[in-house]
Amino acid sequence: MIDSVSWTQTAASLVLVALAMAVGWWLRLGITRQLVIAAARAAVQLVAVGLLFGLIVSSARAIVLAWLWVVVMVAVTAAVARRRAPRLPNGPAIAALAVVATVGLCLLVVFGLGIIDYEPVNLIVIAGITIGNTLPALVLGAKQTVHAAVAERGQIEALMAMGMSTMQIVQQVGGPIARLALVPQIERTNVVGLIALPGAMTGLLLAGVAPRDAVLVQLVVMYLVLGAVSLSVVVTVTLGVRSLFTPALTLLPVEELQAEAPERTRR
Fold this sequence. Notes:
By secondary structure, the chain is mainly alpha-helical. The chain contains 12 helices and no strands. It has helices spanning 7-12, 15-26, 32-58, 62-84, 91-112, 120-151, 153-161, 166-190, 199-206, 211-242, 254-257, 262-266. 25% of the residues are buried. Mean pLDDT is 83; it is low at 259-267.
């Protein structure tokens, strides 16, 4: 059981990172700078989060501040989605709607059914876990939607020529997109406990919580994440495909849907 971790112990855990940086520098792999930035950003961001948690817990308006934090996370998610999938029409609005809908349902289930106590810290943690896992799948779904509109343009136009509505086209085209976007999350869920122990369970075990309780908490988190990611992908793909059409029910020009330039993709 770990009662507490000092700053010295935290710094000592950087030994492996330092070794990787040294080997990368020696072999001239060009990874040293990236590792330094990643480690520094993680430290700054997590320390800032810890300080904010302390302020929220000690505040008389803790629940209001917690909800404000959730709103900021949703706004940041929309901004990140716009940067990573800029070609999807109305991408930020679709991302925000998908996140709000899934996080809202997630919080309703967790607190409405009494699975977890409705407290400021719990609110932030559950919303953060949900949004953090939802974003990658959401972005992948948005990118694949645009890719399908370009690569499978002939098929979509053929479906339109057959008189199919936009919703029927969503049903025809959206399935492969959604399945592809969900592959990483489904694979992580399939191998949980076999290849790797998930973070929440590991943290609780290190904190001395009984294995049974740690497993049950992890199951709650895992099911919430799987459901939230799936719903966010469904919303993103459905609204994303519908956004590809003009008011005259024609596909947007290919020029507006072309993939990002290489330099933007690398970022």
